[in-house]
Amino acid sequence: MRTIILATVAAVIIGGTAAPLVLLAVQDASGATPATAAMSKLGDLSKFRAIVVEVKALADRGDLPAAKARIKDLELSWDGAEAGLKPRAAADWHVVDKAIDGALDALRASPADPVACRRAVDELLAVIDRTQTA
């Protein structure tokens, strides 16, 4: 996973080695910090959230075919992780799964309604965020 360091690292050179003094924040490309990811009863949802953020950006730009293709990656990833996630917190898993289904349905509708797609993806992102902090 790509990590973006959003802090200044101060270092003291001691005998030719650098000892970091301050690391203010580490954040992945989706905006989740390790502390945020660790809060979920389901475990680390950051890889799923990152996909939803990409889908949201595509839907917000009106590129619904690309958003539809990218959300398929979420569906496959989520389904593949079900056996590891669902036993941890079945109720939370079902809430997220239902929100994923809503976004999939909206993006797969023929014709897809841009407003409904954005609304469903926004709701999915909100559900993941609520789940991470629950």
Detailed description of the structure:
The protein has helices spanning 34-38, 46-60, 64-85, 90-108, 114-133; strands at residues 3-5, 10-14, 17-22, 26-28. The chain is of the alpha+beta class. The strands form two sheets. The chain has a two-stranded antiparallel sheet with strand order 1-4. Strands 2-3 form a two-stranded antiparallel ribbon. Helix 2 runs antiparallel to helix 3, helix 2 runs antiparallel to helix 5 and helix 3 (64-85) runs antiparallel to helix 4 (90-108). The chain is elongated.
Tags for this model:
134 residues; alpha+beta; two-stranded antiparallel sheet; 60% helix; elongated; disordered N terminus
The rounded Rg comes to: 18 Å
Q: Which stretches are low in confidence, meaning pLDDT under 50 for 5 or more residues running? A: 1-30, 32-38
The order of strands across the largest sheet is 1-4
β-strand percent reads 5-15%
Q: Biggest sheet: strands, sense, closure?
A: 2 strands, antiparallel
Distance between the termini: 24 Å
**Helical segment tally?**
5
Instruction: Work out the number of β strands.
Output: 4
**Class per helix and strand makeup:** alpha+beta
Whole-number mean pLDDT: 80
Helix content range = 55-70%
- What is the string of helix and strand elements? EEEEHHHHH
Shape: elongated
